[in-house]
Amino acid sequence: MQKYYRVILTIFLFLVISKQQSLAQALDNTDDIRQITVHDFESLEPLLNTEESTIHIVNFWAMWCAPCIKELPVFKEYSKNNDVELLLVSLDFPEDIETKLKPFLKRKGITAKVVLLDDPDANSWIDKIDPSWSGAIPFTIIFNKNKRTYHERAFESLNDLENEIHNTFNTK
After folding, report:
1. Which member of 23, 26, 108, 134 has the greatest number of CB atoms within 10 A?
2. 17: pLDDT confidence band, cut at 50, 70 and 90?
């Protein structure tokens, strides 16, 4: 009889532990409930302008772009310690949002707002953003209601980004 109780207790504990692990996995998969909206250029364009004096940084990037990935920690670090609105515009594929983009952002600890630009007419929208932009990424816009600069390059360090922001707004 005692053996029977041990078997039942073992099965019960196994079920409880399995249920807890399943719940933990479910919570782990949903703890980043980030919404990544997909935009065409027309719906993205308002996000590229502001009437605020707050500094805005919009970075065009993709997971397949090595210089883009290398500079993400620079933006992450800068936005932690400064009053800045950071927007990361992914040029990845919409079908990869759930399976690749969200897991990538979670792994990298990126909590900034991310949107995905899915507009096939790149020749049109690139020129609307900056006629001198070749279309290469990373590409960053630093702006507020009064000033705007464009940067078709990767930021190498926090100091590099801070210098560009200082040069743009003449503040430190």
Report:
1. 108
2. low
